[in-house]
Design a protein that fits this description.
Chemotaxis Receptor Methyltransferase Cher, domain 1, Rossmann fold, 2 domains, three-stranded antiparallel β-sheet, 42% helix, globular
Length: 281
C-alpha cells in the first residue's frame, strides 16, 4: 500500500504549516512508514484510512501525533564527537576566563529530541568545568513525545550503546529495571520544554552556547534565516553557536562569522563586544 498524491499533499501541507518542515515528493514511503504505528495506535486499519478520516473530521490530537511521528528524532550520545571536543578544548577555557565573576554558564540544546544531546552536554560540563562552577542546560523540541521521554531521562540498553562510553554509563547512570536512568546530579541541571523553532521564541535568558544541530536542513532558506536571527537574539555577545556538519549560516545570515573550534567550526556574532572586554577587531 502506498500513499495517494492527495494524502501525501495533505500530510506535507500539515507538517509544513505546523513545523515548517519541507517534505519533498519522493518521501511517500518515509511518511507511510512513520505513520503506520500512529494509525494502529488510534485504531485505524491502515494509514490511508487514518488520513481519510482525519481529512473528513479534523482532530488536533491526531494531527499532533503526525507531527511527532514525522519530526526526525535521529540522535545519539556525543553525536559527531567533535563539537564536544571543541567545548572541552576551546570553548570552555575561554568562557571560564570571561565568566570568572559569575561562575555560571547557560547552554541550549535547541532540537534535543529524546535528550541525548542535552545530557551529553551535562556530562561534558560536569567533567570539564572547574570546581565551584554552575551550569544550566535547556533542551527544547517540537515533539511533545520526545520532551516527555527526555524529562524521564531513561534510556534502553540499545540507546545507551549508541555513542556512550562504558565508563560514563557507569558514572552518570543508574539501573531502572531494563533501562538506564540519568543520575540526579546531572538531571538537576537540565530542563526540557516543548518549543517550535519556527514560531516566535518565548522569553528566555541569554545563552553562552547554543547547539542548533541537524535541524536547519529541514527548513527552506527563509525559515533558516528567521531561526538564525531569533537564535542570535538569545546568544550572548561572545557566545558560540554550533550547527550540524551539513549546515551553515553563510549566504543565509551575515550577522554570524564562522570560526575554527578545534577540528570543527562554530559561529559567533560578527563584530560583537565580548563580555567584560572591548570590541573585537
Amino acid at each position: 500500500m502506498t500513499l495517494s498524491q492527495a494524502d501525501f499533499a495533505f500530510v506535507s501541507n500539515l507538517v509544513r504549516r505546523e513545523a515548517s518542515i519541507v517534505l519533498a515528493p519522493g518521501k511517500e514511503y518515509l511518511v507511510e512508514a512513520r505513520l503506520i504505528p500512529v494509525a494502529r495506535a488510534v485504531g485505524a486499519p491502515n494509514v490511508n484510512e487514518f488520513l481519510a478520516d482525519l481529512q473528513r473530521r479534523p482532530n488536533p490530537q491526531h494531527q499532533r501525533k503526525i507531527i511527532d511521528a514525522l519530526t526526525t528524532n535521529e540522535t545519539s550520545w556525543f553525536r559527531d564527537r567533535e563539537p564536544y571536543t571543541a567545548l572541552t578544548d576551546v570553548v570552555l577555557p575561554e568562557l571560564v576566563k570571561s565568566r570568572a565573576a559569575a561562575r555560571k554558564l547557560r547552554f541550549w540544546s535547541a532540537a534535543s529530541s529524546s535528550g541525548q544531546e542535552a545530557y551529553s552536554m551535562a556530562i561534558t560540563l560536569q567533567e570539564a568545568l572547574p570546581a565551584g562552577w554552575a551550569y544550566e542546560i535547556l533542551g527544547t523540541d517540537i515533539s511533545t513525545a520526545m520532551i516527555e521521554r527526555a524529562e524521564k531521562g531513561e534510556f534502553s540498553q540499545v540507546e545507551v550503546n549508541r555513542g556512550l562510553p562504558a565508563t560514563q554509563l557507569v558514572q552518570y547512570f543508574e539501573r531502572s529495571g531494563a533501562h538506564w536512568r540519568v543520575i540526579q546530579q546531572l538531571r538537576r541541571n537540565v530542563s526540557f520544554k516543548h518549543m517550535s523553532l519556527t514560531a516566535p521564541f518565548p522569553p528566555m535568558q541569554p545563552f553562552d552556547v547554543i547547539f542548533l544541530r541537524n535541524v536547519l536542513i529541514y527548513f527552506d532558506v527563509a525559515t533558516k534565516r528567521q531561526v538564525l536571527q531569533n537564535a542570535a537574539k538569545l546568544l550572548r555577545p561572545d557566545g558560540w553557536l554550533f550547527l550540524g556538519a551539513a549546515e551553515t549560516t553563510i549566504g543565509i545570515d551575515d550577522n554570524y562569522e564562522r570560526v575554527a573550534a578545534g577540528r570543527t567550526s562554530a559561529y559567533r556574532i560578527r563584530n560583537a563586544v565580548p563580555v567584560g572586554a572591548g570590541r573585537r577587531g
